[in-house]
Amino acid sequence: MIAIHTVDWVPPFARGLLRDLRLRWALEEAGLPYKMKFVPLMGRDGPDWRALQPFGQIPVYEEGGKTMFETGAILLHLATKSAALSPAEADAKNEMTTWLFAALNSVEPQLQAIVMHDRFHRDKDWYQGARDGVEEIAKKRLGDLASVLKDREFIAAGRFTVADIAMTTVLRIVMHTDLVESFAPLGAYKARIEARPAFQKALAAQLADIDAHAPQS
Amino acid sequence: MIAIHTVDWVPPFARGLLRDLRLRWALEEAGLPYKMKFVPLMGRDGPDWRALQPFGQIPVYEEGGKTMFETGAILLHLATKSAALSPAEADAKNEMTTWLFAALNSVEPQLQAIVMHDRFHRDKDWYQGARDGVEEIAKKRLGDLASVLKDREFIAAGRFTVADIAMTTVLRIVMHTDLVESFAPLGAYKARIEARPAFQKALAAQLADIDAHAPQS
After folding, report:
1. How far apart are the C-alpha atoms of B93 and A45, rounded to whole Å?
2. For chain A, which has fewer Cβ within 10 Å, the N-terminal or C-terminal residue?
3. How many CB pairs under 8 A join A and B?
4. Domains within chain B, CATH numbers bracketed
5. What is the pLDDT of residues B29-61, one digit of tens each?
6. Residue range A149-158, pLDDT digits in tens
7. Which of B76, B98, B144 sits opposite A97 (nearest CB)?
8. Looking at CA atoms only, how far is residue A217 from chain B in angstroms?
9. Of B106, B109, B113, the CB nearest to A70
């Protein structure tokens, strides 16, 4: 049985953004059964969790007594298990892998920098200057991505793949801004991919799990 | 024949840091023949290069008339071609893939943020505040990585893999600081892996190619 380990609860700003969404979504697309396991939000610095995830992040993937971390690695592993997630042909798989890495290594860091500034540094006297700097870089990267997506339904290989899961969840992390929607091809792509039933089911499940673990007030 | 496309020249601060080093190194470890192809440093915004690399970055990998970008994707592709780069057993391969993504998605962005500040923002009035912020996050990540590497010769699977190529080249990007060496297990790991003949050969080749294309003064 596959299990996804994640935190039991997060504050409102992180609802729908926890990276376990990538794995829930892939497993829903593939029709593979899985269960959820929860670590307390403040338990991620303990030795048990660090043994599973050395950086104290979530999620962790478990299968047959073995665990993996890094959602990119886990998505590629899941891609080997289901034709719903990956093409079979070698060149098409290479294109999928290329764009999975592009999402996580060439787009996410630029968007995550905006998130870090907006969530943790808004009160600093250097916020606006630094924030303008990271937004300029993010816009350049998103503009390049829009030039690709204006002619494509999916990001790679002419079909839905784990690269779309990575790219769409990356674009979601700046949902507190209108940055993505300011590039029409990106807003359309995100809306199109998010309309998939497997995404909607995975998102609803994440939100329900967070609500079920809400602290008693 | 495999070809690596990269820029013909870079200013001194980027010598030995160009990401084509990852591919040269992997190909030297594997003993696979390859040739280099060069794009002018200022030619990366042209339509020919953008058709190969939509973000205007380097390197691009070419094999059998097909191209790929994103060094992480290319390293995983090369890992399928040589036992010198990857274990064969499935769990060991998953561990390698996990740490390859960890290098590129959980360590590189934090170190790259330092590079961006030091190279492009040192003259801004918000530099020091923002720089302190990114250094704090980078140190936390490097401390977590040191806790793992204090007990390991290689980062994954008990042997040299493409994950070591990714992690070592990521640690190199802050070589203008003593950040990596301030964590003893990281400094020792980096020195140990960089001592490999294939790395030395790849690095020397990158530097020689840059010198050969130096602008006439």
Report:
1. 27
2. C
3. 124
4. 2-84+198-212 (3.40.30.10), 90-196 (1.20.1050.10)
5. 999 999 999 999 988 989 999 999 999 999 999
6. 999 999 999 9
7. B76
8. 32
9. B106
